[in-house]
Design goal:
By secondary structure, the protein is an alpha/beta fold. The chain is built from 29 helices and 19 strands. Among the domains are: 7-298, 2-enoyl-CoA Hydratase, Chain A, domain 1, CATH 3.90.226.10; 326-507, Rossmann fold (3-Layer(aba) Sandwich), CATH 3.40.50. The chain binds 1,4-dihydronicotinamide adenine dinucleotide.
Length: 703
């Protein structure tokens, strides 16, 4: 019997088969191997003990050694490729970014990395990057150092650095504009968006897109320097002129500032500056790119965005495992139920959806169709997703479902009634979940026959865009139920945040004092646009007034009432005018009128806002921070990371600040506490600092 090869060996063998790489290797290091066949050298990246190739310091050091070998052998071309099934390379190893002590240390490391990549770029023989799957960031910079790029149809290319508060740092800023239309190049770097192989070919980034079986022929053509190369387009010569670039750069800066304020996100402006000042002069650009990248990397925006990246990874890891959920039954086809059902169907689950109102079901199907069209590329995928979603007026799906998610009105007695009606029809191992935004699970638990299978699976609005899901535990839930609920979130590409039952859980509990403070400011006569501007200036994606309209004033009212009853010291009473608005049907964006009026496209009609006074942002944000500290002290979330992640991915809390508790730590706990004390004196005891601040003095462990 043949022994099964180790996974790493298997991957290398598969790669050898895929690319027909000759084995055994001529030279083998930990992450790279070099082989020779028919006078073509094959340099294969297969990062040890990782499922995805990334460029670490060690990978680049070994590449340097491999280049020594390549220079010592006779060959007519060099192919650089990956042995991983996931793709070519996903970028730099982000873990390395956290170890960087200073801009000087980063700059030194980058210079060394550039020296190695330059060596590859200077080889005299034709060099060919053979790309399948992801080719991102540093991976793309490695490919760009090759004379040709040959891609398989599943390849995708991009520079996502901007999402981490950076720009390309390994030569991308001059090698991409040297290969394709410079404006497209800068736009790709500014947006962080990826392009698929076919588009990359049209842009001239890729020289050939070929099926696996035609790779050998394409390599032969490249080795003989016979692969076509596209020009950079008619604009390129004009953009060599500094005055033209100056004009274009000004427009780019304005556009970039509209997407992300430069005072919070400096990378786009830094990239535009580089291009404006050094385009067409690779040496000068290289030195400036290194300086600028090192500077950004040591700045707080990038550090905090890297932190947010790892927070996401931490939650994602919690969503691993077997959910054993194939069939989901959703009850309630309103704002949330419709999107939950559609999203589950898009992500491959079989879904039945019930509602008392047939009109709500019809609307939900339309919502699902639109979402499928937006999210799925092919019409076959869209049709399959719609086939998986079954409107179910009778609730017949309950009997076959592995998971039932309730998303009906936010009233405990109504939810209890639905749960007790369901009980006799459930499958033995089915999980029963509620999407309640504020009701503690203890208030629902005794309405179900087996509380060990009741869990909160709390989605955020809109489900298709908000990645977070709070998975809510109570003291009678089974740990298997919780693990399955978290794995279900992983199945549908959402991030599970484990929280304990308490009214409002983490996100709504922390958000409500913020919204309530905005309502009090309205009562004091502050203009709504000014309130929203203060929050946006702080870095929130939208202000609290617009957010309340987006969530729905009826939902805000219910949540604020529940939380005021539970925590009267923390959450002010709901203003009468809010109740009257809801009674009049002015529910926010969904009804076309709320605190703002909305146009046909759902855009709020805003007046010009005078600049907010300095205190305004603190009045809004610090109550939220105070509640986060309280949630930690009360054990509603197990640690600071869960709270920070929940607020970033559930509310969009300024990601460049690394989460509310991280922000408090960076600003200085003493400063926050003193400001809260001042606000309490001026505006009331709801600002009294929580005793938990005393435990927050210690620095946050690096995540
Ligand atoms: P919604 O009012 O838009 O929809 C509720 C739907 O449930 C309606 O279509 C109604 O006909 C249906 N329904 C009511 N009783 C029913 C029953 N006994 N059987 C079957 N269907 C029934 O409400 P929305 O906004 O979707 O909220 C639903 C739940 O999700 C609430 O618990 C809410 O707190 C929670 N939630 C809401 C969020 C939001 O932003 N709107 C965000 C996260 C959670």
């Amino acid at each position: 019997m043949n022994p099964q090869p180790q996974p790493e060996v298997r991957a290398a063998l598969q790669a050898a088969e895929r690319w027909r790489i000759p084995t055994p290797a001529l030279h083998q290091l930990e992450h790279w191997s070099l082989a020779l066949a028919d006078d073509i050298a094959w340099l294969v990246l297969d990062r040890a003990a990782e499922s995805v190739n990334t460029l670490s310091e060690a990978v680049l050091r070994e590449l340097d050694q491999m280049l020594d070998h390549i220079e010592s052998i006779t060959c007519k071309a060099l192919v650089v490729c990956s042995a991983k099934s996931s793709g070519f390379a996903a970028g730099a190893d982000i873990r390395d970014f956290r170890g960087m002590a200073s801009a000087a240390a980063a700059s030194q490391l980058l210079q060394e990395a550039h020296r190695v990549i330059d060596r590859l770029a200077r080889l005299r023989i034709p060099t060919i990057a053979l790309v399948h799957g992801h080719c991102l960031g540093g991976g793309l910079e490695l490919a760009l150092a090759c004379r040709y790029i040959i891609a398989t149809p599943n390849a995708s290319f991009g520079f996502p650095e901007v999402l981490l508060g950076l720009h390309p740092g390994l030569g991308g800023t001059f090698r991409l504009p040297a290969r394709i239309d410079p404006l497209t190049a800068v736009t790709l770097m500014l947006t962080g968006k990826s392009v698929r192989a076919a588009r990359a070919r049209r842009l001239g980034l890729v020289n050939a897109v070929v099926e696996y079986r035609h790779v050998a022929a394409a390599i032969e053509a490249a080795a003989a320097d016979r692969l076509p190369r596209r020009g950079r387009g008619w604009q390129a010569p004009f953009l060599e002129w500094a005055p033209v670039r100056k004009l274009v750069a000004r427009r780019m800066r304005e556009q970039a500032a509209r997407q992300a304020p430069p005072q919070h996100y400096p990378a786009p402006a830094a990239l535009i500056n580089l291009w404006e000042q050094h385009a067409g002069r690779p040496r000068a650009m290289q030195a400036a790119e290194i300086r600028s990248f090192a500077h950004l990397l040591s700045g707080s925006t990038s550090r905090n965005l890297v932190r947010a990246y790892f927070l996401r990874e931490k939650l994602r890891a919690l969503g691993k495992g077997q959910s054993e959920v194939k069939h989901v039954h959703v009850i309630g086809a309103g704002t949330m139920g419709a999107e939950i059902a559609a999203w589950c169907a898009i992500r491959g689950k079989r879904v039945t959806l019930s509602d008392l109102s047939p009109q709500a079901l019809a609307k939900a199907v339309a919502v699902a169709r639109e979402l499928a069209q937006r999210r799925l590329h092919s019409s076959i995928e869209q049709r399959d997703a719609m086939d998986r979603l079954i409107p179910d007026t009778e609730g017949a799906g309950v009997a076959g479902a592995d998971l039932i998610i309730e998303a009906i009105a936010e009233k405990a007695e109504v939810k209890r009634k639905v749960f007790s009606d369901l009980a006799p029809r459930l499958k033995p191992h089915a999980i029963l979940a509620t999407n309640t935004s504020s009701i503690a699970l203890e208030a629902l638990r005794d309405a179900v026959p087996d509380p060990s299978r009741l869990v909160g699976i709390h989605f955020f609005n809109p489900v298709s865009r908000m990645e977070l899901v709070e998975v809510v535990a109570h003291n009678q839930v089974d740990s298997t139920t919780l693990a399955r609920a978290r794995a279900f979130c992983g199945d549908i590409s959402r991030l599970p945040a484990p929280v304990n039952s308490s009214p409002g859980f983490v996100v709504n509990r922390a958000l409500t004092p913020y919204l309530a403070e905005a309502f009090l400011l309205l009562d004091e006569g502050v203009q709504k646009e000014t309130i929203d501007r203060a929050a946006r200036d702080f870095g929130m994606p939208m202000g609290p007034i617009e957010l309340a309209d987006r969530v729905g004033l009826d939902i805000c009212l219910q949540v604020a009432r529940t939380l005021h009853e539970a925590f009267p010291q923390e959450v002010p009473a709901v203003p009468d005018w809010l109740e009257r608005k809801v009674t009049r049907g002015e529910l926010g964006r969904k009804s076309g009128k709320g605190l703002y009026d909305y146009n046909d496209k759902g855009k709020p009609q805003r007046a010009d806002a005078p600049p907010p006074p300095a205190e305004l942002a603190d009045r809004l944000v610090l109550p939220m921070l105070n509640t986060c500290v309280r949630l930690l002290r009360e054990g509603v979330a197990a640690d600071r990371d869960v709270i920070d992640a929940a607020m970033i991915f559930g509310t969009g809390f300024a990601p460049f600040r690394g989460g509310p508790l991280h922000y408090a730590s960076e600003r200085g706990v003493q400063n926050v506490v003193q400001t809260l004390e001042r606000l309490a004196e001026a505006h009331g005891e709801r600002f009294n600092p929580d005793p938990g601040w005393a435990h927050l003095q210690e620095p946050i462990a690096a995540t």
